[in-house]
Amino acid sequence: DTALVTVNISPKPDLGIDKAVSICPGFSTDLTTQFITTGLTSIWTIGGVIAGNPAAVAVAGVYQLIVTNTAGCKDTALVTVTVDPAPAMGSDKLVNICPGFSADLTTQFVTTGLTTTWTIAGVTVSNPSTVNVGGNYRLVVSNSFGCSDTAFVTVVLNTKPTLGIDKSVAICAGFGTNLTTQFITIGLTSGWSLGGTAIASPTNILAAGIYQLIAINTSGCSDTALVTVNISPKPDLGIDKTAATCSGNAIDLSNSFNTAGLAAVWTIGGTVVNNPAAVKQAGTYQLVATNASGCADTALYTIIIFAKPFVGRDTSINICPGSSFNLMAQYPVTGATISWTKEGVAVSNPSGINQPGIYELIGINSNNCSDTALFTLTIDPNPTVVITNPANLCEPQTANLTLPAVTAGSSPNLIFSYFRDTTALAVFTTPTAAPNGTYFIKGNNATGCFDIKRVVVFVYPMPVVKAGADTAICEKTSTLLQVAVTNILAPVIYQWEPAASVENPTAQVSIANPAATTIYKVTVKDSYGCNFNVADELKVTVQPPVNAFAGNDTTASLRVPHQLTATGGVQYLWSPAYPLNNSFISNPLAVLSIDTRFAVEVKDAVGCVGYDTVLVKVYEGITYYMPNAFSPNGDGLNDVFKPTPVGIVSTSYFRIFNRYGAIVFETNQWNKGWDGTYKGIPQQIGNYVWVIKGTGRNGKLVELRGNVVLVR
Question: Does the predicted TM-score (pTM) go above 0.70?
Answer without folding.
Answer: no
